[in-house]
Amino acid sequence: MSVSKKHFVRFALILLTVVAVSINAKAQTDKIEGLWYNDVKSAKIQITKESNGKFYGKVVWLKEPLKNGKPKVDEMNSDEKLRSRPRLGLPVLADFVKDGDNKYTGGTIYDPNNGKTYSCKMTYKGETLDIRGYIGISLFGRTTTWSRAE
């Protein structure tokens, strides 16, 4: 086999490997992973599945990122030490596990508008995600609907 044919075969094998890996990585992405607008579209939340198999979400975009000319911070947090952390990058969803085809349970949601953390469950509905935050049992809670932001 000529040198140019060897290089072509080597290139083709590398290209096929890259394509196979990227297809496999895409196939392993869960349907809730990605960017979501909150209910009032004032923030985008990036939901990811971490190595522990649980789902987490953090704020990656704010419609109004500044307050009085400075980046918004987590000023309502009940823990005074956390009040200076930026709202951009703020973790707001934690510890969700997949519970069936479209349900995610066992997690918490943090509301930076009041500084409180609630038990939470999520239900995937295609281009929307129902987020139910509650105290104790889900009967005593509130549901908001997030929409896909990609």
Short description:
A hairpin with a 2-residue loop joins β4 (66-67) and β5 (70-71). The protein has one helix at residues 3-27, and strands at residues 34-37, 43-49, 55-62, 66-67, 70-71, 91-98, 103-111, 116-125, 128-134, 141-148. It has 150 residues and is α+β, with helices and mostly antiparallel strands.
Question: What features would you highlight for this structure?
Answer:
alpha+beta, signal, DUF2147
Write the layout of secondary structure elements.
Layout: H1 3-27, E1 34-37, E2 43-49, E3 55-62, E4 66-67, E5 70-71, E6 91-98, E7 103-111, E8 116-125, E9 128-134, E10 141-148
Antiparallel strand pairs: 1-2, 1-10, 2-3, 3-6, 4-5, 6-7, 7-8, 8-9, 9-10
**Silhouette:** globular
Spatial sequence of strands, sheet with the most strands = 1-2-3-6-7-8-9-10
- Which strand-content bin applies to the residues? 35-45%
Q: Give the proportion of residues in helices.
A: 10-25%
Number of distinct beta strands? 10
Distance between the termini: 47 Å
Given helix and strand content, the structural type is alpha+beta
Largest sheet: 8 strands, antiparallel, barrel
Looking at how many chains there are and whether they match, the oligomeric state comes to: single chain
- The number of helices is 1
Average pLDDT figure: 87
Name the helix and strand elements from N-terminus to C-terminus, one letter apiece. Answer: HEEEEEEEEEE
Query: Spans with pLDDT under 50 lasting ≥5 residues?
Result: 18-27
Over the alpha carbons, how many angstroms does the gyration radius reach?
Answer: 21 Å
Protein name: DUF2147 domain-containing protein
Signal peptide: 1-27
Keywords: Signal
Domain DUF2147: 34-148
